């Protein structure tokens, strides 16, 4: 059996937020395989599935630029070693100039950015002079550009602390409606900044992923129910389904028949069933799409109207404008996400990228 060191236990705890003894047991059960230990804890409902990106120490800022006609938006993440430098006027000027260069050019990668001519030299040389002036390693880590085609519109949002940025592009049928959707699109970006959806819709999932997540979600709910029961509070309903990907016409029809049977047993007049059933079916769908609510933009309940999902809000906006509106592109950057791959300091990460 592999030796389970205190450092390994701490690493697993940092990754999952599970208890120390639970982490040690998981590592013993998986013979010290930390990835299998993470899955073990999730299946037991002991992991809060904390993302490394939530705790990564990378500093810097995210900057955005949107054209006045809302047809083009750009976003860039520039990393520094310390938060102090990220607040430096020199760093802010560098960030402002960089996003403007990206917005004005046809480039799509940071590699292309470094080869652009800027202020009498290549951007790469300009960046090196700024690093020398500021006195700290700086990396233009990643960028994104989104163009709205035809009757589409794009808008963006960056949080006031510069740590989260979002771009969303919408498509509609009537080009006259596009500009009317600018503020609405920004509100969607603000929602995504706060709620962290990973993809636009459940169509990005496959059944193997859903099956794996279902095991973890059910274990998590059952674990929480133990505490709720102890406190005498209402228990979570354990779902049979967790994603729209699982809900086909046959399942929905079967559920509707079951609800009708309940109404009949309750003595509800059949004449009013059509007023009751839609709400009950919506409740069933909400209870059966927990994964979509956690990970998909369309499946989440809108922060500005938590009775409706983003999909429902889009449908209402489309009805209001007599148009069909859909989200066609979504990009979200969170400062430093994914950088922490192993126990090393951020200065080494930056130095490695500078090569």
From TrEMBL:
GO terms for molecular function: translation elongation factor activity. One of its GO terms (cellular component) is cytoplasm. Residues 73-225, 239-337 form the Translation elongation factor EFTs/EF1B dimerisation domain. The keyword ATP-binding does not apply. InterPro entries: EF-Ts_dimer_sf (IPR036402), Transl_elong_EFTs/EF1B (IPR001816), Transl_elong_EFTs/EF1B_dimer (IPR014039), Transl_elong_Ts_CS (IPR018101), UBA-like_sf (IPR009060). It comes from the Bacteria. Residues 82-85 are annotated as: Involved in Mg(2+) ion dislocation from EF-Tu. Keywords: Cytoplasm, Elongation factor, Protein biosynthesis. Associates with the EF-Tu.GDP complex and induces the exchange of GDP to GTP. It remains bound to the aminoacyl-tRNA.EF-Tu.GTP complex up to the GTP hydrolysis stage on the ribosome. HAMAP family: EF_Ts (MF_00050). This is Elongation factor Ts. The lineage of its organism: Bacteria, Pseudomonadati, Campylobacterota, Epsilonproteobacteria, Campylobacterales.
């Amino acid at each position: 059996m592999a030796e389970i060191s205190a450092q390994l236990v701490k690493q697993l705890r940092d990754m999952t937020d599970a208890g120390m003894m639970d982490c040690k047991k998981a590592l013993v059960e998986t013979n010290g395989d930390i990835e299998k230990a993470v899955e073990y804890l999730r299946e037991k409902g002991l992991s809060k599935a904390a993302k490394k990106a939530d705790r990564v120490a990378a500093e810097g800022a995210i900057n955005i630029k949107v054209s006045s006609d809302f047809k083009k938006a750009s976003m860039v993440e520039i990393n520094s070693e310390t938060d102090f430098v990220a607040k430096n006027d020199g760093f802010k000027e560098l960030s402002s100039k960089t996003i403007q260069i990206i917005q004005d050019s046809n480039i799509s990668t940071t590699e292309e950015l470094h080869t652009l001519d800027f202020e009498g030299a290549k951007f790469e040389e300009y960046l090196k002079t700024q690093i020398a002036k500021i006195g700290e390693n700086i990396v233009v880590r990643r960028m994104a550009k989104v163009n709205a085609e035809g009757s589409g519109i794009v808008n963006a949002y960056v949080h006031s602390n510069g740590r989260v940025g979002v771009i969303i592009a919408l498509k509609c049928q009537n080009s006259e409606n596009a500009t009317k959707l600018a503020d609405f699109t920004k509100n969607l970006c603000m929602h995504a900044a706060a709620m962290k959806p990973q993809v636009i819709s459940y169509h990005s999932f496959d059944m193997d992923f859903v099956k794996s997540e279902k095991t973890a979600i059910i274990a998590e709910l059952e674990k929480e129910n133990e505490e709720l029961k102890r406190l005498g509070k209402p228990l979570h309903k354990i779902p049979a389904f967790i994603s729209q990907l699982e809900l086909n016409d046959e399942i929905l029809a079967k559920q509707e028949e079951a609800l009708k049977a309940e109404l009949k047993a309750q003595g509800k007049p059949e004449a009013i069933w059509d007023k009751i059933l839609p709400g009950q079916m919506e409740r069933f769908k909400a209870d059966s799409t927990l994964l979509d609510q956690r990970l998909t933009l369309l499946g989440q309940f809108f922060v500005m109207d938590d009775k409706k999902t983003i999909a429902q809000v889009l449908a209402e906006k489309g009805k209001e404008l007599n148009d069909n509106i859909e989200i066609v592109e979504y990009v979200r950057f969170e400062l430093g996400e994914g950088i922490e791959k192993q126990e090393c300091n951020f200065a080494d990460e930056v130095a490695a990228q500078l090569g």
